[in-house]
Amino acid sequence: MSSETPRTAAPGGVERLRRRIAEWDVWSLPRRLRLPVLLVEATALLLVVALIPDAAPTASDLWLVLALCGAALAHTEIAVRVERARRRVHEDLHVDLTSVWTFAAAVLLPPAVAAGAAALVHSYVWWRAWRPRVPLYRQLFSTATVVLASLAAAGVIEAVGDRAPMIGGPPDLLAVALALLVYTTVNSCLVAGAIAMSVPQAGLGRLFGHWDDNALEIATLSLGGLTAVALSINPWLAAYVLPPILVLHRAVLVRQLEEAANTDAKTGLLNAAAWHAMAERELRRGRRADGPRGVLVLDLDHFKDVNDAHGHVVGDRVLAAVADELRSEVREGDLAGRFGGEEFVVLVGGPDRNAGAELEAVAERIRRRVAALQVVVPTPDGPLTVSGLTVSVGGAVASAVAGGDLQSLLQVADAALYAAKRAGRNRVRMGVAMPMQSSPRDDGQGVLPIGAPEQPRRVEPPAAAR
């Protein structure tokens, strides 16, 4: 009996192992993304293994590893609550503050040793602060990009500068600067490549982060370079790096909280209050620069039918998909927001000539995008595809509206939106401001959408018309 037990248990163990492997989150990635991710991870592993025979760390290298990893782990433990809050606020972070330590290791240590230290630090931060919000397959890819960036930066130091016994002099400082550029380029391009594979129409802001993100990355790496210079003098100086990086960590959290307060949770666009404030500022700036601005107000047609037929969860997915199409069509400098419900608004900048025609062209492109949209939502009964969506759009150009203030623009655009609704929906209408005699009961705006019947004041249709 005992001799037969392993024979019967082995197939069951193999089957359990097969099922566990099949449940890995990495298989949920699109096929076009799965192979590049695994290739980056395999490349990082093979390079480290190939460089291990040439590593031969010295006693001073080991002291530096101990100082760097000790400071990095202390940084992680002190800032663990802040880092968890960062992940709760914004799960897709472009800037990882552990690069202070990983870049310093790349400057001071042989490539394979630097890569090992980077993997240790990055994995420890994931273990303490990022689980379970960051799946293991994403962490492995992120660690692989950091390892490859560290290898590239360490290679620059060995080719151009000198790692020991002390960093000093123009050649070494130039090598650190070049290594910084190589590090951020390799890491950013690998991450951007993965995003581009998963989101084919992603803009530069989605791929490489905003200017603030990149400035923060350069500042963090610069602090890592200063850390390397300090540690080359005395490893105990790592303790003096902790206060500034902890303050920077908290400052970054404050900025992320401000961004979250300005963001609509369902769509990722600006919320109504934030859009109003930013749009007012942009209009004032535009008046000083004689630059026209236009406003588009968009409303999904019969959106209540989607919620009634499929539920609010599906409706939220539809809103997010429409917001993605909106982001894909407007430019980086335009302001897109959600006013609430199924209504969106965009402040569009444009050239002085043909501003109205260009604003209408943008609105038409958005309308066609929404009409062609197919939103696939996973459900317990299988994927559900929501299609046949339409949007009505009203627009107004600042140069055509008396005063050109935001309230007037919104009134004109909203009147044009109702004109589009009355015309049958799934249409674009541009509004104009007609001069009108003011009266005690009239605000003097004289809002009249193109194609609407002449009347002293706009009469809004009942709510059911929306």
From TrEMBL:
Q: Which PROSITE patterns match?
A: GGDEF (PS50887)
Where is the region Disordered?
435-466
- Name the Pfam families on file: GGDEF (PF00990)
* Domain GGDEF residues, every copy: 291-433
Do you know which InterPro entries this protein is assigned to? Diguanylate_Cyclase, GGDEF_dom, Nucleotide_cyclase, Rev_trsase/Diguanyl_cyclase
Q: Which domain of life is it from?
A: Bacteria
* Segments crossing the lipid bilayer: 37-56, 100-127, 139-161, 173-198, 218-242
Q: Which UniProt keywords apply?
A: Membrane, Transmembrane, Transmembrane helix
Q: Which SMART domains match?
A: GGDEF (SM00267)
**What NCBIfam families does the entry give?**
GGDEF
Kindly provide the name given to this protein in its UniProt entry.
Answer: GGDEF domain-containing protein
Lineage here is: Bacteria, Bacillati, Actinomycetota, Actinomycetes, Pseudonocardiales
